[in-house]
Amino acid sequence: MKKIDRIVGLPACWLLSMVNALRKDLPPQKIERVLVIKFWGMGSMIVALPVFRALRQAYPRAKIGFATIGKNRELVEMLKVSDARVYLDLPQNPAGVFLAILSFFSRLRRFRPDLVIDLEYLTRFSALAAYFSGAKKRVGFHSWDVWRGNLHNVRVPFSPYWHAGENFLNLVRKTAGRDFKLDFDFTLPQDPDAALRAEKILAELKPGSAAPLILVNPNASTIALERRWPPSHFIKLIDDVLEAGLGLPVLIGSQDEREFTESIRLKLKSPERCLNLAGKLRLDELIEILRRAQLLVTNDSGPLHLAELVGARTVSFFGPETPVLFGPLGKGHKVLYRGIDCSPCITIYNAKTVRCIRSRPECVAGISPDQALQAVKESLRDGK
């Protein structure tokens, strides 16, 4: 996807920039419809929630739409932050992808936005989507290092020294001409049906267990797998948690990640004492289990930010990415980050591609299981 965005996106942005230079976009007289674009990154979508609150304050009578990929449908419907949704569902065959994108652009145009807020980190595809929406005012991040043409007519720099939430909110500040404070106090209300299903799943897998629930997410999205703390470290940590009697470890992840999480469980000293729920939970069930957990131990990935929405305590590992940008907001979070000379190496300017100069990412691998165990003990103690 990164390669396609570069190879196809560059000439497309160049061509449309030439066309756009021949016309003059007059600013809309009134903002009645706002479209927010965010395709990738569950965690980033959650971090961007203050954007919707700010837009409601800036344009209280406007209808707000949200454009994203179909994979995010379940989460977007739960969040209930927009009045309309436009989903891009990508089929497997290349011809189908092209037709799906054309249909998606057509549906964006039918929404008739006056204003577009493009939350993507310098992707050309989102710039094209903003342009084809037909909005007269198009706001997005700008950098001379990643050329996207002049498809946005309000261009805002991305500061690597601000949290991503501040950067997202800054797009609205520049658009509305007023300040908004980054307050992350969003919560997901409990879903009674999902809560019952979650309780049933836990009861069937470990009947009668009253041990504290410690969720473990050893995964990270394929955008940058190098963000994963080494499997051997997770194995040592889980063994130590079981030996110290701190709680019931439960591995989580998607269906695609189940084989990887199971390989970790099978290498434990007592694999029968650790549950593997990877690939067995719907998103709403995972959220309700997170709500019941005493702690989530996780890499820098989506579940970390889901935990923020339900007030779960977390211990997280950062290395290729910096917690300055993507660390959890709010209370009850312990972040383990070494900040060595080459860290962070992931940036929005290299499409979040890791190019490690060492044989393995020492930034995250250098965080020891003993350090993690100490953080787990402190978090469990603080949560009592």
Compact overview of the structure:
This protein has helices at residues 2-7, 9-21, 42-47, 49-58, 73-79, 94-111, 124-132, 164-176, 192-205, 231-243, 258-266, 283-292, 302-310, 323-326, 362-365, 369-382; strands at residues 33-37, 63-69, 84-88, 115-118, 137-142, 154-157, 213-217, 248-251, 275-276, 295-299, 314-318, 333-337. The chain has 384 residues and is of the alpha/beta class. Helix 2 (9-21) packs parallel to helix 7 (124-132).
Provide an overview of this structure.
By secondary structure, the protein is an alpha/beta fold. The chain has helices at residues 2-7, 9-21, 42-47, 49-58, 73-79, 94-111, 124-132, 164-176, 192-205, 231-243, 258-266, 283-292, 302-310, 323-326, 362-365, 369-382, and strands at residues 33-37, 63-69, 84-88, 115-118, 137-142, 154-157, 213-217, 248-251, 275-276, 295-299, 314-318, 333-337. The longest helix is centred in the first third of the chain and has 18 residues, at 94-111. The model has no long low-confidence stretch (mean pLDDT 91).
Jot down its keywords.
384 residues, alpha/beta, Rossmann fold, 2 domains, six-stranded parallel β-sheet, 41% helix, 15% strand, globular
